[in-house]
Amino acid sequence: MILCVLFSGGKDSTYALHWAIFKGFKLGKLITFIPERDDSWMFQYQNVKFTKFQADSMGLPLTFINTSGEKSSELNDLRRAMSSCVDEGMDGVLTGALLSDYQRMNVNMIAQELNLRVFSPLWRKNQEEYLRWLPREGFSFIITHSASMGFPHDLVGKEIGEAEVERIISASRKFSFNPAFEGGEAETFVVNAPLFTKKINVKGKTSCKGDSCTFIIEKVNLVERVI
């Protein structure tokens, strides 16, 4: 079975394609949506244009889809993207959905219309266990955006390891936000993963206002991995 991947460059969609490869699926292409606004209901906004470096590191084809980010029209953009998967002979769609019923419902609805199977390997997984698993298994990511009271905002722009994961989990318990960020508490960008042939080196700057911080990537390059 050949899958197209709804890919934001964050930890969840990167984990999903890792899962798919090790389950024996073939990946037809990655699809990254580029919203015009930062409050898209469906798609990640911060730094998604840099997924091309992740795709290069994994040797996978990537398609960018521009979308208004408007709730009324972005589903049509999703349908257009998934239709292209059918046209190119793919059988299913892969998502990194964790808990969002809105996202999962709409992907499943469109997939059913198009006779595509949907795979969401992270759906309803234990959020804390999943977050701890990532650095242990070789996934490195940076926080590119945080938007929750009590989130350790000093981690924005930093590479997250096991110690940082424990800080996030501790804060999530105290301030009652989702530790894996499915409620929009934070967004991520993966810089290293088991399927990457090269690590992604990023440079940028962090801007904060109130309980919201954003890391703006300004420069990206691929570097040799240290095994």
TrEMBL record:
Q: What class of enzyme is it?
A: ligase
Alphabetized InterPro entries for the sequence: Diphthami_syn_dom, DPH6/MJ0570, MJ0570_ATP-bd, Rossmann-like_a/b/a_fold
Q: Which GO terms describe its biological process?
A: protein histidyl modification to diphthamide
Q: Which GO terms describe its molecular function?
A: diphthine-ammonia ligase activity
Its Enzyme Commission number(s) read 6.3.1.14
The UniProt keyword set, sorted, is: Ligase
Q: Where is the Diphthamide synthase domain?
A: 4-210
Pfam family of the protein (one)? Diphthami_syn_2
Task: Name the source's superkingdom.
Answer: Archaea
Q: What is this protein's record name?
A: Diphthine--ammonia ligase
Provide the species name: Sulfuracidifex metallicus DSM 6482 = JCM 9184
